[in-house]
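Honest question from a wet-lab person: if I give you the sequences of every part of a complex, can you actually get the arrangement of the whole thing, not just the pieces? Trying it with mine:
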Amino acid sequence: MEKVAIVGVGQTTYERRKEDTFDELVFEAATKALADAGGEIGDIDNIVTVSNDFWDGRTISSMAVQDAAGSWDKDISTVEGDGTFGVLYGMMRALSGSFETTLVVSHIKGSEAVMNLITNAMFDPIFHRSLGVDATSSAALQARMYMEKVKATQEDVALVSVKNHKNAMNNPHAQLPMEIGVDDVMKSKMLADPLKLLDCSPISDGAAAVVLATEKGAKRFKKSPVWIKGVGHISDAYTLGYRDLANSRALDAAAKKAYKMAGVKNPLKDLDVVELYDAYSYMEPLWYEGLGIAKEGKGVELLKSGTTAMDGDLPVNPSGGVISAHPVLVAGMTRIVESVLQLRGEAEKRQVKGAKTALAHGINGACGQSHCVFVMGV
Amino acid sequence: MAEWLDKVENVYFEGRIKVPYKWYVGEVGSRFLVALRDKKELWGTKCPKCNKVYVPPQKNCGECFVPADTWVQVKDTGTLESFTVVNYSHSMQPDKPPLMYGLIKLDGADGSMLHLIGGAAPKDLKVGMRVKAVFREKREGNILDISHFAPE
Amino acid sequence: MGKKVAIVGFGQTYQRSSRKDVNGVELINEAVHTALSDAELTINDIDAIVIGNMDHFEGVNYVDCWSAEGSGAVMKPIFKLTTGGTTGTTVAMCGYYHVASGMFDRVLAIGWEKNSESDTTGAIVTAFNPVWERTRFGGAIAGLAVEASKYMDNYGVTERDGARVAVRERLHALNNPYSQLHQEWMKGMEVDQIVDLLVTSEQNQMLAYPLRMSDMCPRTDGAAAVIFASEDVAEKIAPTPAWVVSTHNRHNYVFLGDINWDRNDTLETAAKKVFEDAGIKEPLKEIDVCELYMPYSYAGLKWMESIGFCGPGEGPKLVWDGVTDMDGELPVNPSGGVMSSNPIGATAIIRVGEGALQIMGKAGDRQVQKDVNYALCTGFGGCNWADVMLLGKKKPS
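Yes, you can. This is the full assembly:
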C-alpha cells in the first residue's frame, strides 16, 4: 500500500481567549504548517477542515474557514469531530490516488461558546438531555466507575494533573503550564465529585494544521517526512449505561488495528512517546489500559511507577496534554503535531531523546465513546 | 493578548442559535414514557440474541443489530453503579446544585439508567447502594416523571 | 494508486413531510437495514461507516456518536461529516475515499435529516456570517432568487421556463414511491396547461421574485444509505455494481455577496474535472441520465448549461424540447429530484443512490428506458458549492 507522511505541522498558542476570529486562527495554523513543510498553498491538492456547528454557533460552520485554509479551486471536505479524524480522512484521500497532498486544519474558540450547553446537546433529547448532564458531569460518573474498579484514590489520579501541567512548563504553546502538587489538585474546587477543577481540562481557543503527502507528494516539500505507520478508529455504544465505562474496549480495538498496521507488538516497549487525550485526569490511566501500555486495571499502577513521566521509559504527554490546553476538535490534531515534533527531534525543551515511534490519540463523544489512534515513525 | 487591542476598539456581537425543536420519540420510547406517566411502570426491551434488557428501551440492540422486540417490565428499584455530585450551576440543569446524578442498574435490566439521585445527603452516596424511583405527582410523559431515585 | 470503487447497495426510507413514527436514530436504522438488504449483506460485513446531517436541524451534537446503536457503528469505525446542502455527496465521497484508500472494503455512507422537527429557515439563516450577511441576506431562498432573476435578465428567460422544469420534476416524482410530493392532480394534464396554471394561480404564492412555492423544494424527513465496495469484492456482492468513475467538488465561496451570479462556476469546474477524468467530450450525448441536485426550478435551466449539456442561455430550449423528460435523450431526475423530496443531509446521497439504481437497473417504475452506461450525480449547498460524482456501468480502467 502507498504510504502517507506528515510533512508539515503548525499550531497557534492555546489560550483561554484569543482575539483572532476563526478564520484568522486557521490561517495562522495553515501558513505555519506550509512554512514548516517548506512549501506553499500551490503545493496542496486538496483540503480537509474540521468544524462543529454547535461550537462555532453557525450552521455549515465549515464555510467560515475555507478561505483561510486556501481551498479556492480545490477539492475540500469537512469532518465534524476531533482533529485526528480529520487527519485520518486527509490520509484516505491521499491514499486514494486522487491527491498527492492534503492540508488538514482544525480550529476552536471555546471562549465564544458555552461548553455546558454544547456538551449537554450531545445527550439525546428524549431520555438524557433534560437531566442537565454535560461533558464534565458524565466524565465524573466514568471517573468514579473506573476509580472504584481499580481502587484508585483521588490523590492517585491527581498525579496526572501534576505530571502533565509540569510538562506544559516546557511547551510554549500550552495554556496552563503549572508546577503544582497533589495537594493543590485536592484543594481545588470540587466541580463534579470526584472531579476537581485541576482534574479538568480548561476551555481553550486555538488552531492546528498538518500537511499530508504521499511518497510522491512528499517530494514537493523540503521537510523530511514523518510516516503514518498505523491508524485505527472505533466507536463504542452511545448510551452511557449500556457500555462499561471503566473498560475502554473501543480504544483497545482501535489501538490493536493501528499496532497491527504499524507492526507494533509490545506498545510499552515499541513506542517511545505517547500523546493522548486526557480531557480529565482519570482518563490518562484509563487510556493506558485501552492502548495496551498497561494491563486492564493497572493504569494507575503504571502512572504511579513513573514510567510515563518525562524521565520514564515511555513519556506520556510531554506537551502537557489536553489537561493543559483543551481546544476541542483541535486537541487530537495537537497530539499529532506534538508527536511529529518529537519524531523530528524538534520538540525543544519537551523533547523525548531519540524518539523513533510515537502514538497520538483523539476522542469523540461523551466519556471517550469513539477513539482514533495514530502510530507514526521516522 | 493581541497587540492590536491597544489601537483598535474590539467590536463583538452577541448571538444565540434559537431554533425550536419538536423531537418525536418513536414507538418504543413512547410506550415506555406512557407506561411511566400513566402507570408508574418501567419497561425495557429485550434483545432476542444476547438477552440484554434495555431500559430506557431500544428499538434495536446496538450490539447485535437485531430488533429488540420483547417487552419486559423491570422493577423501580435498583443498584447505584456510579454517581457524581455536581456543584456548579447552569440554566440547562433541572435543579439548583448540588445535583446528584447516578447510573442506576434497575432490577431486571442489563446496563444502567442515568438519572438524578435525591432524598440523601451527598456524603451518604455509595456505589452499590440500593435506590428506588420516586415518581412525580404530576407526570407529563418525559423522563423527569421520575423525580429522582432515593435510597430504598 | 488506490482501489477502484463501486456502489453495491442503496437503501432509503420513504421520504415524507413528517416521519412522526420514528425518532432520528430509528430513521437512520431504517435506511441502513434497507441498504444492507439491497446488497444482501449484514452489518458484520461492513468495515466502516460515515454519517452526515446538519446539526441545527435536529439539535443533536456529535451525531456519529449519538446514532451508533441505529447506524450499526457499535464497535466499528465511524465519523461524521457536514457541509450543509452538499452533506449527502460529502458523505458519499467520504465513503468512496474510505474504499479507494485501500483501508476498507465495504463502507456504509449515511445521510439523514428530520426537517419537520425544527425550523429549517431559522437554522439555515445561521449559516451566514453573523457580522456581515446573516442579518440581511441569509436563508435559503434569498440567494437563489437573486441567481434566478439575474439569469432571467441575462437570457430573456421567463417564469414559464422555470415552471416547465418544476412540472417535469413533479411528473417524474409520480413514478417514485419514496418521493415526498406526489401531485396526482397533474396526471393526464398537458404540460403547457400545468405551466400556465402555475404561473397564474394566486394559490401559488410568490415567495421572493421570481420564485413561487412551486419553484421550490419541500422540507422533508428521510434517510438514505449507500454501500461502497472495493474492486476486490464489488462484483461478488452486486451483479451490476455502479462504479465510481470520478468525483470532484468545488466549494469556493464563503460570502453570498462574492458569488459570480452569471455562471455557476463551481459546478462548471467540478463537472469539467470529472469529464476530463472520464474522457467525456460531449456530455449530452455520453451521459445517459442525470440526478441533478436542484433545490429550485431555475437550476434545471442554468445549471444544465454549467455542466455543459448545452450552451449558455440554451437551458430553456433543452427542457421545452423534452430532452430531459423520461423519454428524452438525457432524462434528468427520474426520481423527481430535490424539488419533490429534500431531507437535506440525505438529499445529495439520494442523488448518488438513484444514479446507482439506474446503472444497476433497479429503479423500478422510474427506470429510464435505455441502456445506462453513465449516470451523473450532483450535490449543491453552502454558498453555491458543487459536488459531482460520475457513476458508470463499466469498471474504470
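Two things worth pointing out. DSSP finds 16 helices and eleven strands in chain C. The first helix of chain C runs from residue 24 to 39.
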